[in-house]
Write a structure and sequence with these properties.
628 residues; four-stranded antiparallel beta sheet; 19 helices; 3% strand
């Protein structure tokens, strides 16, 4: 009994684990089925809306739903067959609208990615398990749709559907699972020979090789996008050029507005196909207009068999002209794009030659980018074309292998040389430009240039120093020396306790004095006394007393380009009593008598007066005259 009790907990845990696994698998299958049903329902809504608004429907609601299911299968690449034709021969429809293909691919991708999201309390699926379960649920709905359209106006062959329907489903689900796992690096296939595996491990699977493969993939994808975009531009220009035939075809296909909306929606779904056809036209091979005609930039060869449709009305006719030959600019731009996206990583701007890739590595990466572009273009060309009927309509669109070969030739022939030239240009030696010689600084010593400062009396309004000839323009932006009045107090940087200077001349005044030829020292000061005596090497202001001047070395330090006057400016002197009184006096005079005359009492941050620090008496602050 004890053993049965002890084993009951593990048995219940195993059962719970099995139930969790079953629930996870069921959820993944339902996700795939829901994704398929969502895409099928979206197309069914559009078809039913067209059927409801049509004034003369050919069939009932069942027939409209079968057409919707057939269009959904066509979006997966399944070739449909139209059994009722005028000739009695079933006509295949194999041109897949690429825009219609994007919806089921995106839904299957999202279903597989969401199936791998962690769910608390349930075991996690593996990547392979998610792909299999999601694809299984999706394909169950697809098989039901194949059986449902068997009696409709558009039927699907079960064997062909079994070969083509799983391809898009499994690839989209695999992409979703790969993204959910963080896009890991794929391992080397186990079935390869040892020599091949070692060669791949040294080249493409090495860190440097993986980086070059990534760069080649980006450059090839960018070139393919430019090819398709250029093809869309060519189609748009041709539609404008052949506007009248396209409008006539659009009006003839449907007389009521609901039918015209249906034709417009079908045309929008085929716009990516037309862009791929335009890219093939620019590459040179062109595209087939039936089994007996081909359209190329050199002209249309043969007799085209074109059904009435607005996009087909824009096909150029007749021999090629220089305007048609200009379509070759599209693959040329794609080849240059391969070079640009390769060199932007191989040799970034202003990179050193040692840091850049070698010329061989750059050329190989650009060539690999051309291979990627050619492969993508060939796949798109194969999907964009197909039969539109039997007989002469059995082949429409570009030939995939010819289009891929032309894309490879254009991108490699232009991309590799352009990449090498761009790399050479970016790695060229950059020589610094010759800088203009710096002008020598003027001599500021007392013995080199005589003192020429002129001082006037206290009532003259101040002393001015004349600027030397040729330096008149400096007066436009520099303040002249001695502009302060005789009764004006010096500024905060020039006043100290007892009326002595605290750091020397203002830097602008000192420069003017130096240009005037006055020998000024770093310690030359402007006082606040009544005399006008010049100190040694110093310069006095209006009614000021010159302090002890500096030496020639001090003057050179004062006029050094890296000289900063705050280096020798003491921070304590700003809060001393004499400096505060001088500031208040300057503020009062500048206000024009608006400020009241009140004493500048020491603030909380001001130091104690010298008399208190030395133990002396101060009648203003210690009326008793006793030492505290």
């Amino acid at each position: 009994m004890t053993q049965l009790t002890e084993h009951s907990a593990p048995l219940s845990s195993a059962a719970a684990l099995e139930r969790g696994r079953a629930a996870t698998l069921t959820s993944a299958v339902l996700r795939g089925a829901f994704a398929a049903g969502l895409g099928l329902g979206a197309i069914a809504v559009l078809v039913m809306a067209m059927w409801i608004t049509s004034p003369f429907p050919d069939s009932g609601a069942g027939g409209a739903l079968r057409i919707a299911a057939g269009l959904w299968l066509l979006g997966h690449g399944v070739e449909l067959v139209r059994p009722d034709t005028l000739s009695g021969t079933p006509a295949p429809i194999g041109v897949v609208p690429l825009l219609l293909m994007g919806l089921p691919a995106w839904l299957a991708y999202r279903a597989a990615r969401d199936a791998l999201e962690p769910d608390e309390g349930r075991p996690q699926l593996t990547g392979l398990g998610a792909v299999c379960t999601v694809s299984g649920g999706y394909l169950l709905v697809g098989a039901s749709a194949v059986l449902y359209v068997g009696d409709g106006a558009l039927t699907a062959h079960p064997l062909r559907a079994a070969l083509t329907l799983p391809v898009l489903t499994v690839l989209s689900a695999a992409a979703g699972a790969w993204t959910a796992h963080g896009c890991p690096r794929l391992p080397l296939p186990q079935g390869l020979p040892g020599a091949v595996r070692r060669a791949l491990a040294r080249t493409f699977w090495a860190p440097a090789g993986r980086r070059r493969v990534a760069v080649a993939g980006r450059s090839g994808a960018a070139a393919c996008l430019l090819l398709v975009g250029g093809g869309a531009l060519l189609v748009g220009a041709s539609l404008v050029w052949h506007g009248d035939p396209a409008h006539t075809s659009f009006v003839q296909l449907a007389g009521d507005w609901s039918g015209r909306v249906a034709v417009l929606l079908l045309g929008l779904a085929l716009v990516p196909n037309a862009a791929v056809w335009g890219a093939a036209y620019g590459l040179g091979p062109g595209f087939a207009l039936g089994t007996t005609a081909t359209a190329t930039p050199l002209g249309v060869v043969g007799t085209p068999a074109l059904p009435s449709f607005p996009l087909l009305a824009a096909v150029p006719d007749g021999p090629g002209t220089p305007l048609n030959w200009a379509a070759a600019g599209v693959p040329a731009v794609a080849g240059l794009a391969v070079a640009w996206f390769t060199v932007r990583v191989a040799a970034p701007p202003f990179a050193l030659r040692e840091e850049a890739w070698s010329a061989r590595g750059t050329a190989l990466t650009a060539a690999l980018g051309g291979v990627v572009c050619a492969g993508l273009t060939a796949v798109l060309a194969g999907l964009a074309g197909g039969p539109l009927g039997s007989g002469r309509l059995a082949a429409f669109g570009p030939v995939w292998w010819l289009t891929g070969a032309a894309a490879l030739a254009w991108t490699v022939a232009l991309g590799v040389p352009a990449a090498l030239l761009l790399r050479l240009w970016r790695l060229r030696e950059r020589r610094p430009k010759d800088l203009p010689a710096a002008e020598p600084l003027p001599a500021t010593g007392a013995g080199e240039r005589g003192a020429t400062a002129t001082a006037t009396g206290a009532g003259s309004g101040g002393a001015e120093s004349g600027a030397p000839e040729g330096a008149w323009w400096r007066a436009l932006w520099r303040r002249p020396v001695g502009r302060r009045g005789a009764g004006a107090a010096p500024g905060p940087r020039a006043a100290s306790e007892g009326g002595e200077a605290i750091g020397g001349l203002d830097i602008l005044d000192a420069l003017d004095v130096a240009e005037a030829g006055a020998g000024a020292g770093a310690g030359g000061t402007t006082g606040a006394g009544a005399g006008g005596t010049s100190g040694t090497g110093g310069t006095s202001g209006a009614g000021g007393t010159g302090g002890t001047g500096g030496t020639g070395a001090g003057a050179k330090e004062a006029f050094d380009p890296g000289f900063e006057p705050y280096d020798f400016l003491p921070a304590e002197s700003w809060h001393e009593r004499g400096a505060r009184e001088a500031r208040w006096a300057a503020f009062k005079e500048a206000s024009g008598g608006l400020m009241a005359d009140f004493p500048a009492t020491p603030g909380p941050l001001a130091p104690e007066p010298p008399s208190l620090r030395k133990g002396g008496s101060d009648t203003d602050e210690n009326p008793g005259g006793t030492t505290p």
